[in-house]
Amino acid sequence: MATYYVKNGGNDGSDGLSDGNAWETIGKVNGEVFSAGDIIKFKRGSTWNEELIADNAGTGGNPVTYEDYDSGIKPTINRENGADTSGFQFQADFVTFKNFIVKNTARDAVWADTAGLNNLVCEGIDVDHTEANSGFFFQQCSYITCTECTSNDTGNNGFSFFGSALNNISHVLCTDCVAHDTRTNDGFTVHQGDDSEPADTDFVFIRCIGYNCDQQGFDMQAGDSMSMIDCESYDNAGGQWYIGEDLTTNTLIEGCYAHGSGVGLNLYGDSIIVRNTLIVVDSVGVVIWGASGVDLYNNTIVADSQIIDFAATVADIVIKNNVLKRTTDGRACRFQTAAQAPDNAVFTFDYNCWFEVGGVIQFYAESIPGNFDFAAFQAYGQEANGFEGDPQLNAIYYIISSSPCKDTGIDLSGEGFSDDKNGRTRPIGIGWDMGAYEYGVKVMIRKV
User: Cα dihedral angle (177, 183, 185, 189), rounded to 10 degrees?
Assistant: First the structure.
């Protein structure tokens, strides 16, 4: 294992084994052969207009690592918008790319598109401007980790994870990453390949943020076992979340925050759980398309239009412990499929609080003439323990002490969770509260 150094003003004729004997160019680095555990350090404050190609493999526990050293601005790869340029390319397994700025590329700034690559790590990478492609693009790879990376002003998606005809993409972990200002498409996407092969399994996004994107902040078109935890999506032109089509199964959205313009959640696919999530939008809160097995538990949804819209034939819908508030006059919930009125056995609504500011809650079903009120909704067999009334939310959407939602939910610990959006154990009072947040402060006593 060896450590090499690269900086502006170095000398490619040196051995590269110290700052004083550092190499100068990325071309020199690309021409060397590295072994598992080797570290190639690039000096902060230095800038190169070359693509860095990582084509030497590490091993488990001993990756080949490209990282920064010294203080100041991160080492920068600036391609100056040259034709057909990119910044960093993974071409081998067990490679770590750490603490760089990559900017002004024509194509994908950071990318991997070699069948079967695995154990690729990006940490602290900041992408700023691509002409036509993504900030981070991974196709037909597995075991990919992105931590504290950002993507800004890209021609396509901020973070792209694609399947392919040769290898499905799988085992992706993104933590504390931010994608914003995509000029086309989404902040984060997991997508089928060019021939519509599905992605594989295990995609986890934790504390990631997508905003000001051309489409959605999160567009999950394909894949099994998809989790988005404590993520945020806002002010994206195409809405906040899109869980897509028939190629997505077993999706969890937990502790997330969707707000601003557009639809909060568009849900397709099978087996989707949304819980402890706050949705505050100027459009429809949740649109459920041809989905099966959708559970909405302990969410707070505040919408200017419909709170929930069933836009197509669905199956196995369970909606419990939610605060559901419409801020304008109109239908709060719409059932657009004539064969699926609210009394259909596919629907279970209970222990929810419904409220319309300045009016009464209205429902609509394609098979029922006109709108109908909450009492009629109950008569169709729904909301035996739910109610219509002001949830009494404060400015940050917590219920206050006099809220009728306090202690009036049902214990859902049997559904696999027992905390609120802030991670506090439910219940804090005598029973579960409705909505994303429990009221009050739980005092913890540590035993010594």
Answer: -20
Residue ranges in the chain modelled with pLDDT below 70 = 164-165, 194-198, 245-246, 441-448
pLDDT at residue 379, as a whole number: 97
pLDDT in tens, 282-291: 999 999 998 8
Torsions phi, psi for 138 (to 5 deg): -130, 130
Bridge partners of 126? 101, 150
Give the pLDDT confidence score for residue 397 in this predicted structure.
98
324 and 352 Cβ atoms separated by less than 8 Å: yes
How many Cα neighbours within 13 Å face the side chain of 207? Answer: 7
Degrees, nearest 5: CA angle 261-400-407: 105
pLDDT for the residue 28: 98
46-57+70-405 to CATH, choices 1.10.10.10, 3.40.50.300, 2.160.20.10, 2.60.40.10:
2.160.20.10
Which pTM does this prediction carry?
0.95
Residue 198 phi, psi (nearest 5): -75, 155
Given this model, what pLDDT does residue 30 score?
Answer: 98
Q: What three-state secondary structure class fits 379?
A: helix
10 Å CB burial of residue 414 (0-12, 13-18, 19+) is exposed
* All residues at 6 or more sequence positions from 345 whose CB lies less than 8 Å from its CB, including other chains: none
Q: Is 31 left (phi over 0), alpha (psi -120 to 50) or beta?
A: alpha
The pair of three-digit structure tokens given for residue 93, joined into one six-digit string = 């397994």
CA 330 to chain centroid: 30
Residues of the chain by 3-state class (helix, strand, coil), percent to 5 = 5, 40, 55
Helix (H) or strand (E) holding 26: helix 26-30
204 in Cβ contact with 227 (< 8 Å): yes
Q: Indicate the residue type of 445.
A: I
What pLDDT does residue 447 have? 39
What residues contact residue 409 under an 8 Å CB cut-off, 6+ apart? 298, 320, 321, 351, 431, 432, 433, 434
